[in-house]
Amino acid sequence: MIVLGVESSCDETAASIVENGRVVRSSIVASQYELHEEFGGVVPEIASRAHEQHILPVLKDAIDQAGINLSQVDAIAVGHRPGLIGSLLVGLSAAKALSWSLGVPMVGVDHVHAHLYAGILGRELPAFPALGVVISGGHTSLYRMDSEMNLTRLGATIDDAIGEAFDKVGAILGLGHPGGPRIDELAQDPGANDRAFDFPVSRLSKESLDFSYSGIKTSVLYTAKGRPAPPALKGKPPRPKQEVPELTYERKRDIAASFQRAAVKALTVKIGRAFEQEGDFKTLIVGGGVSANTLVRSEMTRIALESNVELIIPEMAHCVDNAAMIAGLGTKLLQSGHTDDFSLSAIPTTAC
Ligand code: KG4
Ligand code: ZN
Predict the structure, then answer these.
(1) What percent of the chain has pLDDT over 90?
(2) Domain holding 67: CATH number?
(3) Whose CA, among 16, 178, 217, 347, lies 20 to 30 Å from 244?
(4) What is the CA(327)–ligand 2 centre distance, in A?
């Protein structure tokens, strides 16, 4: 079965051809980082306009690189939730047009769920139940996975996502957008001291499997830029803003490494708790842009080894947004009888 995947939920326009839910015949991703760089984050209107420009060339490249004709496509899978509504609509409209003109079925795929399929591409299905961990720019969630299609959410962030925290810290340190890969790189400088700053590791309540990343971001802000001036007391002169040392390369590097250590620790604490509380996992499945992080990858390897479970983590190209994961999970959904009609909507929130 040859499935064409389409993805446009945020700032990547992607298309992919996947055969039988496993073999990635092509995976094309057009990023728009440079368009959003000066704003320090994704601007929705700019994103949807760029998707409109990229979608047809990206679809054509995916077909050409797979060495097939459009007539060989058996079905279309499209990421239709969650994401920016204007961005989602571009991919969804293209998918509907293709499905109608080719006369093939279409299925809508949840983007967050698809991140957990990214590591399964190109291999046999792993053993279930598995602990699924999605760490991306928009989500930080833990799932019990009884199959690749059957998820129960165990916990999620109550404020910022881990990738969002990386990006905000990147912006505070003036590293540009997206900050995640740049913090990763800076933290790998041999001179970096990841104990230089003791940033808070959020644990929430004793049993909680939820996450919180807004406190650490504020703590980095105050360390890098100083606390804002406290309000003036009645009849007294204004109190000064806290002075902090100059943000030199060395200081940025140490802040980046210390932030990364604390942010990843907050993740591993909750994964450890999930193993303790749920017990019977046979596999640890990780996905989402932050699974490209060097420290995350080594920590996931360590946890899997210590917990005696197999680790499934995507190859680098499939960590960040791509359409191969959409086509892969879409194939599984189609094979189990799911299809959608042209009333399929773009939805900003996840279903899982
Ligand atoms: O999965 P993704 O492409 O988009 C969403 O679904 O959100 O994830 C993007 C996120 C961004 O926050 C980006 O900074 C982060 O993944 N990211 C990284 C790394 N590579 C990408 N974060 C830390 N270290 C990395 N190497
Ligand atoms: Zn994503």
Answers:
(1) 91
(2) 3.30.420.40
(3) 178
(4) 14
